[in-house]
Amino acid sequence: MASIDLVGVSKQFGALSILDDVNISIGDREFVVLVGPSGCGKSTLLRMIAGLEPISDGTISIDGAIVNHLGPQKRDLAMVFQTYALYPHMTTAQNIGFPLKLRGSSPEQIERSVARVASTLHLEALLDRQPRALSGGQRQRVAMGRAMVREPRAFLFDEPLSNLDAKLRHHMRIELRQLHKSLGATSIYVTHDQIEAMTMADRIVVMNRGKVEQIGTPLELFDRPANTFVAGFLGSPTINFAKARLSAGSKDVTFEDGIYPLALNGASDIAAQDVIAGVRPQHIEIVATDVAPLKGTVVLVEHTGCETNVILDVGNSEWTVQTLSRHRLNQGEQVGLKFDPAHLHLFSASSQERILW
Amino acid sequence: MSKARKSVLCWVALSPFLIIVLFPYLTMLSTALKQKDEIFTFHRSWLPREFYLGNFVELFVDRNFGRALVNSLTISVGATLLSLAVAIPAAYALTRMRVPGNSALTNYLLITQMISPIVLIIGLFRMFAYFGLINSLMSVIIAHSAFFMAFAVWMLRSYFATIPKDLEEAAWIDGAGRFSAFVRIFLPLCLPGVVVTAIFTFVNSWNEYAMSLTLLRDVSQQTAPVQIAFLTGTLYQIEWHLIMAATLIASVPVAIVFASIQRYLIGGMSLGGVK
Fold it and tell me: What is the predicted ipTM?
């Protein structure tokens, strides 16, 4: 197993910049998820680590050795593709054994290794089938097996679960995570699904438009997002934003239409400024209007069974409040909203960066 | 409309065309099995008096038609192998690598197909004469592969484009070099496309007349189509019984080849057509 370091990695296609100055350090045995909206460059970055895409600038090193100029054959990494990329003319056993065959292992050795991997992944009964005779989940497992069989230095996953249905995806997520625990393999996992990122990662790298927005553990990112993008990307339903004004010395914050002056116990060296305030739907309580200075008008109530999402007009913005209690609310009804100031995220209106108060 | 009625209607609509297509073949078969004096009788009959194979014997024993068949086979197989050996890497490069002037090159290939070989025949003759290759089967092999290669590249290119790139990339990551991934993963997957292209090249080469006629001057070098043509005009009479027997034999390899790979052919052609 290995550590992987990206230093100042960039990628340009002509004048078009795909990745700009990416710096990520991935520790041995770590499970790192690259997450971001489609087109943010996460898959390109993974392909660059794999050696499938040349690097315009910067260095990629594995275990301290720079691999920029090594072909994908020589990096000793394994990759699971979104399409699984199983060889259609080979059986499951041949697919899994292919990397060993290329290495010149003996047929007995290959058979032993394939049997071992197949038993880990519950593929014993499928060894003689060709990929076209396998279901989506089985193909996914064969692709995993082909990656596992040669015990590579690290695993690369390119949205491996995106072709599965929701139930199977949930199941495979758990299975992958357990597999990572038992193998202890360094893994880089690309996805656009924030749930996958939050549930699987040791650390998450949030990317947007070819740049790294924030790196941290799932809870760090959720609790202290570095900017409005990260705050808006993680969490479901999405975080509520509203324009507000922060007073000098960060004593209080006043929402744009003046309805919610909030006493804060902030740092005194922060100047008065326009901010974007963010509160997660889970952190807001619906209370009687007379005890809460912040009020909203009910637009829609969504019952998901477990939680209830209440969509409200608050000033000029639309907010969502998620509660466990089943409120009986009517459209147009006015309700009071309350939240702990500790759960308030403030971002500079100009730079969109987090203000530490 | 019931399925049976539909298919009867289809057959009725197609039958005039079917007759046009099959008539020459039936004439050929019928004439080839008749004796010389039976062909121009006043009362024409489709069925021969007796099942007469003497025409074939005469063709092979007296006219040395076997020799022509061997020549044709040598040239067709040679041209097919040579053009595939060049067209496969060319098509691979055009679909998988960054080739400068890619689209100009492919358009150029198409343009070469618009020129009839007969226009170039004098130039070709002089060129092969300069290299001392006149009367050598090699000259026709080279000329044929050059002419049919453009088609082969086009055909293969459209087939190769349907093979997902992921598969090769997976092989590279699994430790295969570029060539090894090409041979172990890519080629087996595009075998249907390669087979169809090979058949087309083979048949084109088998039937080609003008170049074979020009470049092979010696009777012992003649190909089957050339020798058949010579049967019509070398003597005081046209020997239809021999001509028909010879064309029958010459069309057999082509028919066998087409029939045996029909499944591939339909798949390959539709792939080439849609993409």
Answer: 0.85
